[in-house]
């Protein structure tokens, strides 16, 4: 028989293992532990379990590239809330952003030349990615009963621009990419 308390104990153990193996940092550990403690239903257990299991996801590029890129742990999670964060890419990895019944705004500022990959997941929520117009956008997200909205101009032919490669999924949620002329002035 399914017991929410037993499932919460399993999730706590798995989260503790990830922390002890340096898969997640202390801030994420404490934030996820808080979510686990608030669980009341089986549906909430399955959502948190999925997030914990995806902390070390690997993603293979689909455009004929053979190298594997490891997407880092979840950078920002928004659950029943609104969060704004700045993308800070490291070696081409922009991180992972999750929204569950909430909204997560990712501001992409000062993107380095070359490809930066981010992974987004919106489950009954909204992920809004705000970039400057001088960024090439490649959208490989998958909608499931959702909407994926990107700007019309994505600069596919200009090789000198920084490239934002977006992967992920939206399940009953939305992913919106906004290209803004002057990012600094509009976001302050």
Q: Which whole number gives the mean pLDDT?
A: 79
Coarse morphology? elongated
How many beta-strand runs?
A: 12
Termini separation = 52 Å
Largest sheet: 5 strands, parallel
The stretches of 5 or more residues where confidence is low (pLDDT under 50) are: 57-72
Fraction of residues in β-strands? 35-45%
Series of H and E elements: HHHEEEEEEEEEEEEH
Biggest sheet strand line-up? 3-5-7-11-9
What count of structural domains? Answer: 2
- Helical content stands at 10-25%
Number of helices: 4
- Kindly name the structural category: alpha/beta
Radius of gyration: 17 Å
Question: How would you sum up this structure, described in words?
Answer:
It is a single chain. The chain is α/β, with parallel strands linked by helices and 188 residues long. The chain has two domains: 1-56; 59-187, no CATH class. 24% of the residues lie in helices and 40% in strands. The protein has four helices and twelve strands. The strands form three sheets. It has a five-stranded parallel beta sheet with strand order 3-5-7-11-9, with no helix packed on it. The chain has a five-stranded parallel beta sheet with strand order 4-6-8-12-10, with no helix packed on it. The longest helix is centred in the first third of the chain and has 17 residues, at 4-20. It is elongated. The N and C termini lie far apart (52 Å).
């Amino acid at each position: 028989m399914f017991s929410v308390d037993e499932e919460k104990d399993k999730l706590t153990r798995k989260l503790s293992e990830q922390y002890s193996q340096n898969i997640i940092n202390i801030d994420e550990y404490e934030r996820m532990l808080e979510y686990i403690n608030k669980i009341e239903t089986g549906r909430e257990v399955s959502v948190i379990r999925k997030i914990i299991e995806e902390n070390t996801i690997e993603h293979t590029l689909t455009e004929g590239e053979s190298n594997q890129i490891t997407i880092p742990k979840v950078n920002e999670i928004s659950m029943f809330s609104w969060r704004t964060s700045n993308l800070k890419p490291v070696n081409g990895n922009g991180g992972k952003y999750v929204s569950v019944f909430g909204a997560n705004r990712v501001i992409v500022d000062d993107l380095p030349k070359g490809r930066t990959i981010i992974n987004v997941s919106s489950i009954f929520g909204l992920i809004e990615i705000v970039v400057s117009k001088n960024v090439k956008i490649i959208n490989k997200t998958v909608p499931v009963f959702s909407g994926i909205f990107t700007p019309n101009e994505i600069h596919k032919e200009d090789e000198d621009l920084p490239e934002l490669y977006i992967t992920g999924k939206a399940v009953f949620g939305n992913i919106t990419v906004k290209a803004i002329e002057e990012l600094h002035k509009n976001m302050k």
